[in-house]
Amino acid sequence: MVFMSAYRIGACLGMLCRVLSVLSVVSGFNLHGERPTVYRGPEGSYFGYSVDFYRPTPESKKLSVLVGAPKANTSQPGIIEGGAVYYCPFTSDPTKTTHRCTQIPFDNTNNRMIKVNGTREPLEFKSHQWFGASVRTHKGKVVACAPLYHWRTVKVNSEKDPVGTCYVAMQNFSAYAEYSPCRTNDPDPEGQGFCQAGFSVDFTKDGTLVVGGPGSFYWQGQVMTAGVADILNGYSLKAVLRRVPGEKHTHAAADTHDDSYLGYSVAVGEFTGDSEQEVIAGVPRGAQNFGYVAMINSTNLTFIMNFTGEQMASYFGYSVAVTDLNGDGFDDVLVGAPLYMERETESKPREVGRVYLYLQHFPLTFSDPLLLTGTHTFGRFGTAIAPLGDLNQDGYNDVAVGCPFGGEDRRGLVLIYNGQKDLLSQGLTVSQELHGAWASSSGLSGYGFTLRGDRDLDNNHYPDLIVGAFGKGEVSVYRARPVVSVETEMILTPRIFNPDDRSCLMTESDTMVTCIRVDVCANVSGVEIPESVVLNTEVQLDWLKGVRGGVKRVHFLDSHQPQRTGVLMFSPSHPHSCLNYTVYLRAEDEFRDKLTPISLAVNYSLAPPPSDLDLPPVLNYFSSTFLQEQAYILLDCGDDNECIPDLQLSASMDRMELEVGDDNLVLLTINAVNKGEGAYETELHTLLPPEADYIGVERRIESLSRLNCEYRMVNDSRLVVCDLGNPMVAGTEVSVGLRFAVQRLDDAGPLINFDLQIHSSNKDNSKSNPISLSLSISARAQLDLRGVSHPSQVVLPFPRWEPKEKPLKEDDVGPQVTHIYELHNSGPSSIREAELQVGWPSRFHDEHLLYAMEVVTDGPISCRTNTSLNPLGLQTSSAQDTPELLGFLRNSSSPRRYRRATGTVQAYSSKTLNCSNIICLRVLCVIGRLDRGQSAVVKIRSRLWAHTFLQRRNNPYLLNSTVSFRVIALPYRLQPSSLPHRTTSMGTLILWGTPDVAFAVPLWVIILAILLGLLVLASANTGHVEVWVL
Fold first, then answer.
1. Which partner from 476, 496, 649, 755 sits 20 to 30 angstroms from 314, CA to CA?
2. Which domain does 707 fall in, by range?
């Protein structure tokens, strides 16, 4: 059964621990953490595994410290690491860093022997018995136990059962007696053979000893009680099997309670309303491993009620404690579950530990538990819980919780919680953390594994605290410092600054100013506080302005500064003290805010103590060290000095609609009126939409005021703020014009809003009616489709040139004809995408007309054709045309005359040739974004297939290409109801230069040629068509 004691240590091995609390954790309240009294024991002895205070007699004023060291060696012959308890006299001498302790001789004997079949054999086995694993005192009585003490049992064959044993001492260690309640005729696991009596111990208020033995009855566990006087009376070292008169035991239960560990921890308290205390016993593996705490009647050890854990294997009941934390006169119960796991996610639980507080409202009536939860992994928060008594003398008991493997570098941590009246709503608050002071590389200290409080070692009327660190073999005693409570007040006479009453003289400038008197007074009180208490004070004038970066409106008259330090001194005969100041109001032109209260604040702190003061006092942690009062400036607002304005606002705009892409300049004309009392720090706030930018105040219109306006960013809001006056007196009317540019409209909706309102710092009716001005947004793009033919006309025949029957180069075909198309965006809006289609007069049956060579683009446009360009693969010419062709295209005539070709040739059905009566090449173009003023250009270069036309001499023709476009989308959130589109045509005229008389050029053709000039652009649905037959 070494397993159980080893587990008790192992259950607390871990890494980090911290605690959630209502108040922020502070480094120290009234335990003097900087200079503890430290006791050190033998290395490796686990000195500090258990601790308690010791008072030899109830009348004695001197207390000492008892420390258990369960692995210490003693003078007992033949016993190895039997364990010991040390007596450590207390002294507060600050010159001593450590203090000596001496072993208490509870037992100086070897193992007792017994004869079995003529052979002497050990009756008991004291080596490694862990004597000192538990120590408790009560009014001069001391009990120390060895839960791993073994004995031989009464069986013939030699067996060793870990029954555990305890020693009781009285009369300042002059009388000793052994008490081993499980060393009986009921051995083995099914009986009391594995009892481990003394695993936990406590005393009732009348001195009855309570012993826990968690290993009895297949580890169901049990609790035993006995009177100390009964243990001592009739005690004999030879009485191995002894039943103490009046001794009581809990009994075995059904086997479903096996492995529950009843008695793992014990405490006592009053819960039934009678004069008898009940026993509280932890059962950390009961209730199917959820753990529970049993309340047991101390008269007959029957079970009254249970508190059950919430999480399996959390070891709920590992530690228990009883104290009244809310001052209602009823004992409350605290239960530790150091293996409690907090689940951040289902797959990643964190073992942090938890303490449960059950508040008793009436006998056997408890609240749902209040929870204190650790936050760092493996700290084992809740391993130890120690009632502290009233640590800070505020009328409420306090408690300490150990986290032995928490804190920085796992050095150990102790948390101090202060009780209060309203725990149900406010919970326990942490006032102090105590930390182990060891290097992180020196191993686990276990600091906080054992705690003991509620005793006053130095007789200063404040209880002190013992903290054990068994891993380092050290015990630290922390004394509680006297707590100084301060009640402060600040008196302003008068409370209102009257600017017309200037009764104080500024001697430096011989100026009279408005002033008030400020008295800062305080009373101090506390238990056992020093004879002399000194407070350092700092007074801050108009301190909120300092926080917010404003101009402070008042100064001290003698220093002309807004802050001042001072000293308040107190003694038992003078617990009340004051400081007096004169404060004046600065000139009106030095600040703007006349309406906001002027906040005057005082901070105070204890002056550093004298160097010879052993235990310096501390200010009450739960009392504020900050106090403020408010003064006011007298306003022209009636008898109540409260101005109630009536601010009214109206506004208009010079336009109601904007087009995306336009310049979009907007003028807001605003009229502000105050029809009530004065409005202070009055400002016009104009909330800008994201699309607008502030240009400035309109200054060209004489009727509009030239206010001081500025652009501000407030959080994520863009504002234009205009000063309307401080104050804006009754009857004031102001008009102002604000200019804005509205540009960023790509993502705008159909409306954008300017929101306007007047703001003042007045308490009541501080704002005007809100105004929201809306501008409608639209998108419109005006697109123009323009084109040109180069040349605009071709005159046949060509002098000194004949087309080749099998052309190899493009010069062999005929003159170059180029059509250029331009899609121009006149705005104001852009387009995102458009399509442009060209129908090119390519062939009449199998005869070529305009033989397309290439398509060239300029701008955000790309094109493709439905058939190949230059399908015959003609060699392109570096020169655009031969000199002969170029000369003729410039209308240079020639006397040469060509005869009509002979043969049968099919005639065209119309003199105007377009995609309705010939075969057209289709060119499809996609146009990207076109902003205002941008163009997309398509140029189709071709050769007039002269052979086709020379076979039809003297017939003029108009070769028309058709072009159309349609806009697909605009690049805006808003889209117009209809998108631009258009279809047009463009022609090249074919004329004859020297016709036969019979084929003279008709007059209409000559007139048409003159009209066409260089640009022929006609609507497709209005083009002239004349049908004729050859």
1. 476
2. 647-778
